Amino acid sequence: MIALSGVRKRYGAVAALDGVSMTVEPAEIFGLLGPNGAGKSTLVRIATTLTRADAGTCRVAGHDVTREADAVKRLIGVVFQESNLDPELTVAETLAIHGRLHRVPDRAARVARMLQQVELEAWQHRLGRELSGGVKRRLAIARALLPDPAVLFLDEPSTGLDPQIRRQLWDLIRQARRAGRTVLLTTHYIEEAAALCDRVGILRQGRLVAVDTPAALTARVGPFVVDWVGPDGRLVQHMAATREAAIERARTLEGTCTIRRTHLENVFLQLTGERIACS
User: 161-197 burial, b for 16+ CB within 10 Å, e for fewer?
Assistant: First the structure.
């Protein structure tokens, strides 16, 4: 459903994307995981026709994003990291106007169903400037879903939201996939990628350093990790292939040790040498 081949993009001396190739399958939730500045948002902007790549190709549902931009736009819904809602429109007006711009059939009925689906009926007469961050994010997702897109792009959809609101958004994203939509989301939250994504791509400094299921990625570095607090107070992590090996490793270390299951943070740290948020 989404295919990139050798995509490159530079901003001056900075390589935002450096030869990225990847595919996203139909009805898949694919997560791009990486720290700020890794190239996640640039990839989304290229795939949604807003930015031109310097080299390489990107296709969405078989359409080239440069040569067939109009066809791509008719197939996608996009939620950007920064809110672009009109502060002087009500929730219902925001959806109604978006539906008119996209020529949504049975617009009034569909707006009513969408308000119910995202649980915004109680806010439908509230102005954009009166909404909380979580309600704004749900409205942005509802607006993107209103034209019934085949592909949904979400650029760090839960940044800045508290954990309860974040999980409500996760439910909306899962609903989109159950409806047959392909979802590409960017995130720097480990927990979000592990909970939502069928596959994860790890970006570092514009390069895709790994792509696989969360389970397969964690298996690469070993299913167990020994967290050891050294004499200098610094946390050191040792990976282990079995629980027995982890126990044996812990016995050799002086000080406080904890044995636990590996998660994606450890994968990212092993592949890139950087830490990202665990939300």
Answer: beeebbeebbebbeebbeeebbbbbbbbbbbbbbbbb
pTM of the model: 0.85
Per CATH, the number for 2-215 is: 3.40.50.300
| Mean pLDDT calculated for residue range 248-276 | 79
Domains of the chain, by residue range, sit at 2-215, 217-272
Dihedral sign (CA 240, 243, 245, 250): positive
Closest CA to 265 of 189, 211, 200: 189
Q: What is the pLDDT of residues 97-154, one digit of tens each?
A: 999 999 999 999 999 999 998 889 999 999 999 999 889 989 999 999 999 999 999 9
pLDDT digits (tens, 9 = 90+) for 176-188: 999 999 999 998 8
Residue pair 227/266 in contact (Cβ under 8 Å)? The answer is no
**Residue that is written with structure tokens 């792009």 in the block:** 153
Encode pLDDT of 191-244 as tens digits: 888 889 999 999 989 999 999 998 888 877 778 888 888 777 788 888 888 889
- Output b/e per residue, 239-259; b: 16+ Cβ within 10 A: bbeeeeebeebbeeeeeebee
